[in-house]
Specification:
By secondary structure, the protein is mainly alpha-helical. It has helices spanning 2-7, 12-29, 32-46, 53-65, 69-82, 87-99, 103-111, 118-130, 135-146, 154-169, 173-186, 191-203, 207-214, 221-234, 237-257, 263-273, 277-290, 294-307, 314-323, 328-356. It is globular, with a radius of gyration of 22 Å. Among the domains are: 1-84; 260-357. The protein contains 20 helices and no strands. The longest helix has 29 residues, at 328-356.
């Protein structure tokens, strides 16, 4: 396709398709060069006074992937002003706002989709509801939508992944596993899905399944991290040492580029593979300033427990109480943090009593 674009450099449809393919490859491999190439493919049209809405949406996807959320929203708003019924623009906008914890704004963007595609709007609204205080209602809505989507529809995979994650967060582990397996059968190469499934398996001490799942995915930083965690659980120290060194180099290279997209993963790396809870906590705090998802909440809480600094997990605790999730791992971390807070207060009281005595 690159050759065709060179031969016909003014074909926007060809350029947009090339940018889309680079974005898809980035989601699979997490190679930042794909983001640069995606934007470069459509750059001539972005220089126009009024860029095509599709070019703006594609650049917004690049910026979203780089966690440049404000500029991504600007692009999406420009695209929507030119094309108010642009489903993809409204959907990406809702996703960004949800990741930022701006749930009212996210629901409004989802709501704009109702007249264009009720199923897409429903999944969008359910995903927001799942992390903003009404997970039960979100689950029921997902069940109703499932009956309206044929398995051949691309939306079916998105629905299954959403249902799997929602089931985990609600403590419905058997249902979560069923949804994960169905989603993998539909799209076994989805990197986001594979990471979520690997996390599920690691929590249940099933590292051999993770090793089999991710053996061929070492190009993707997120998946290599899960592979290393599985190697640690399995006691495969030689492979683990090699992959830890590789991950350390990748995170260092990202920091040198000023790329802070993987703050969450870097925090997990420092906590669980380098045993450096203080650095992990600092990274998790920086990550929380950018995005507020369940996984971001969890690593902030885990790092605060490990560093024995429960007060620094207060933002995550507040978010979790509002979200009303029942994930067993999050519930366990809540209890650990509460115990640390109580222990610190008890120690202060004991010190005060001793000084008075």
């Amino acid at each position: 396709m690159h050759g065709a674009l060179v031969a016909d450099g003014y074909n926007f449809d060809l350029a947009a398709e090339l940018a889309k393919r680079h974005l898809e490859r980035f989601r699979r491999d997490q190679d930042p060069r794909d983001l640069g190439q995606a934007e470069a493919a459509i750059e001539p049209w972005l220089r126009q006074p009024d860029p095509p809405p599709r070019a703006l949406v594609l650049r917004a996807s690049v910026r979203q992937s780089n966690h440049f959320f404000a500029s991504a929203i600007d692009d999406l708003d420009r695209a929507i002003r030119a094309q108010p019924d642009n489903v993809e623009a409204w959907l990406i906008r809702a996703n960004i706002l949800q990741v930022q914890g701006r749930y009212l704004d996210a629901r409004q963007s989802c709501g704009r989709l109702i007249l264009m595609n009720t199923v897409v709007a429903g999944i969008c609204l359910a995903n927001v509801a799942a992390v903003s205080g009404t997970p039960e209602q979100a689950s029921l809505l997902m069940q109703r939508l499932a009956a309206q989507i044929p398995p051949a529809d691309p939306l079916y995979h998105w629905l299954l992944v959403s249902q799997a994650e929602m089931a985990v967060w609600m403590g419905r582990q058997e249902a979560a596993e069923q949804f994960f397996r169905k989603a993998l059968a539909v799209n076994p190469r989805d990197a986001y899905l594979k990471a979520a499934w690997a996390d599920f398996l690691l929590d249940r001490k099933r590292p051999k399944e993770v090793l089999a799942l991710l053996a061929g995915d070492i190009r993707n930083d997120n998946l290599l991290l899960r592979l290393a965690l599985a190697e640690k659980q399995s006691g495969l120290n030689e492979d683990l040492a090699r992959h830890v060194e590789d991950l350390a180099s990748r995170f260092a290279a990202s920091a040198e580029r000023g790329d802070r997209v993987h703050l969450r993963e870097e925090a997990i790396f420092n906590l669980k593979l380098l045993d450096d809870p203080e650095k992990a906590l600092s990274l998790a705090e920086a990550d929380w300033q950018v995005q507020k998802e369940v996984a971001d909440c969890r690593i902030l809480m885990e790092a605060a427990v490990a560093a024995r600094q429960p007060a620094r997990a207060a933002p995550a605790m507040l978010w979790l109480n509002t979200a009303r999730l029942r994930d067993p791992e999050l519930t366990r971390l809540q209890a650990r943090l509460a115990s640390l807070v109580f222990g610190a207060r008890f120690a202060m009281l004991a010190t005060h009593i001793d000084s008075v005595a």
